[in-house]
Every structure is written in C-alpha cells, then in structure tokens.
Amino acid sequence: MKKENANIRIIDIARLAGVSTGTVDRVLHQRGRVSPEKKAKVEKILKELNYEPNMVARFLASKRSYKFAVIAPTYSEGDYWELVCEGINKAEDEMRKFNISVEYLLFNQYDRFSFLKAVDEFKQKEYDGVLLATLFGELVINLSKELDEKEMPYIYIDSDIHKQKDLAYFGGDSLGSGNIAAKLLLKEIGLEADIFIAHVRFKYKEISVQMKTREKGFLKCLAESNYKGKIHHLEINPDDYTGSLPALRKIVNENKGLVGGIVLNSRIYELVNMLDKMEETLKERIRLIGHDAIDRNVKALKDGKISFILSQRPELQGYDAIKAFSNYFLFKQVPQKTNFMPIDILIKENIDYYNNYKL
Fold first, then answer.
1. What predicted TM-score, i.e. pTM, was given to this entire model?
2. DSSP readout, 176-244?
3. What is the SS3 assignment for 101?
4. For residue 86, which phi and psi values (nearest 5 degrees)?
5. Could you tell me if 294 and 242 lie in one domain?
6. Higher pLDDT, 272 or 206
7. What average pLDDT does the structure give for the chain?
8. How many Å from the N-terminal Cα to the C-terminal Cα in the chain?
C-alpha cells in the first residue's frame, strides 16, 4: 500500500488513520498534544505509506538561518576570481529563501600575510561553514586542522589538497589539466622544441597549490612522451620586463624552430602583452597555451596569439560549492568528496559557443 510521497496529502493520511487532519499535522511536526492511541494510528499509516513530510516546508517553518564564510582572493573586473564569486552569489540568491547567507573575507593572492589577516578576521566571527580557496597550501592545511578540532565543515575550491578532512572539493583536476596542456603543446611544437613555463606575478618558489599540481602533470606528460627539448622557467613582472624580455628573446634565438610557452594560472594575457613588445620574427615562432576563459584571454585566443585555453568553469565551482553546503545543512545531504569540473579545450573556432553557456 505504497504511494509516491508527492501524491499523499495530509487529508489522505487522516482518512486512513481515522483521525482529524489537525492530529496528523501535530504528529508530523511534533507539536501539541496527541493521545498515544491516535499517534500510534497515524505513525502506522505513515510507515505503510513510506511517507516523509515535505522537508522544504518543514525547514521554512523552523526559521533556522545559516551563514557561510568565503575566504578567497580579491579581484578586479574580468578576473578569474570574479567569475568564481559570481557563481557563489548566484547560489546565495537562490538559497536566500532558506535563510542562507554568505560573507566574503578576501585576501591578496600574492601575499601570505593578507591570507592570515583574512583568517584572523574569520576566527573572530561565527559561521556555520567556510569555503576555502587553497592557494597557500600549508596555511590552508593549518586552518583546516583548526576547523577539524571545532568540527566546522569546510569545502575547498580551485585546487584540491589531498588527505584532508574537507567536506568536499569543487574545482578542476589540476594534474589532469597539466597533462592535457602538455599533450596539446607537443602537438604544436614537436618533441625537440624548447618550452618555457612563465610564472606571471609569482616567484617560482611561491606558486599556488593549483599551479604546482598543474606543473607536476605537465612535466609528467613530457617525461612519458619522450620529450627531448629543454624546459625553462621564466618569472615575469608585467610592470617591468627588464629581465624577462631579454631572457625570452635568448630562448627563442637559441631554437631554430618553434618554441612552446605555458602559463599555469589565468594570467596568460599578461605574457601576451609582453610578447607584443618582441620582434615579429621571434614572436611568430612561439606557441602558447593558457588557462581560464576570462575576457582578456579570450581576446588573445581570437586574435591568434594563444593556441589553446583550458577552462574549468569557475562560476560552476562557486555555485556548486554553496549549493552543496546548503543541502548539507538544510537536508543533511552529504556531498560527494571530489567534484571535478569539466576540462574544456577552447580554440578560437569554438570559444563563442563556450561563452554562450551560462549558469
């Protein structure tokens, strides 16, 4: 005698149990006085029907509210992290009717002390959970251990940190992304051409968790492909090309054919700006691959200055993470531990179709 929950009304339960609808309501919501005999009748029918009360309505009646902290980098218009936060904001808008709210604690992604300051601010307030950008790996792990002790759930975005007790991770497969980037670049330049890895605005020793993992996947693929060229690391300060531009000219001049270049974060547009200052005969022998379909990268792709962009849908990361937190607290739904975004391979011929996709 089972029916779908959606077709079962309180009046149906009352009729089958031989009680009033008010009695059924009091049993379902555990309020008011109900005689043991009538309660037993209602519970018997509920069990037979495999009935569960509407969880959404039950929550709305409870008036419980939840606040999530978001510890993430500051951004300018058109940046990668703006897209992540747009997804977070969209999810918050959708969940506001359930008394869900989000508060941002932003930090400078090039400054560890800025991250620590955001963490200190976080510790001074009360939150139900925290969404963490994992750029500063060791510092994130330290915070995660404190959250474990407090039994506060946390979700990682952008790049995963393994062997932690995070509730879930939403983001790209950084190792896989690096692997794909290497395969694409080798198809462009061959196995003997030199490759430079450009670290834009980062010192090599200070690159983020995501960049380190992408580089690991990139180098692993080169090794497995019997790559015979040289790998160069090039640190680029977009405000001063004094050191990096001559260094890149030297790399290209020492190669007779093509040279490959990659940026491991979203800032390949800044490398493109530097290349625009090179001699055309050198620049035309460089093939580039970058990450993230932000507007400035897309323009460079359409202009033929970048061969490929790999994108991991930053808006969807932020959106899915907040929705997962909401479902966890509202409906006790535990999310899948690892949630990889698609790795989209974009070229100038398909970028407009990709940009048509919106949350």
1. 0.81
2. HHHHHHHHHHHHHH-SSS-EEEEEESS-GGG--HHHHHHHHHHHHHHHHTT--S-EEEEEEBTTB-TTH
3. strand
4. -60, -40
5. yes
6. 272
7. 91
8. 41
